[in-house]
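Entry 14. Structure prediction run on the chain below.
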Amino acid sequence: MKPLKLFISALVAWALGLAFISATLYFSNGGADFTTTDIMGFGVMAVVASGVLMLVLYLPSLYWLKRRRGGVSPRRDFILLTGLVCNLPLFIILVILINRKMSLSEALGFIATFLIIGVVFGLGFTLVYQPEHRRRAI
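Output returned:
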């Protein structure tokens, strides 16, 4: 049951990341250049890259921190781990690519998207693995 809940957490993280991309594309030009091609381009890149990050980096790091702490509290540590620490190499790569392969606004958009996806996935992990007695109180 927990793998299904983690998958649902990943889907929610992807949905919020795609919503951010869509809103950014729409409001950046007042909706003038808002096409499905742009959404599909940015969206597919973000979903594929974050899916790889979730499997290769986020999950092992979250399980390591959970085992080291003996639980999933405090939640902010798990959120910071996936939101900032695990995404730091990607953020550095995106900053290096500014004015070489992408514009500043594209790089900042991807950085914010991966930050949102990481934070939501880390929060979802803590909700899935919280102790049973605390789950009933929420």
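The longest helix spans residues 36-69.
Filed with the rest of this week's runs.
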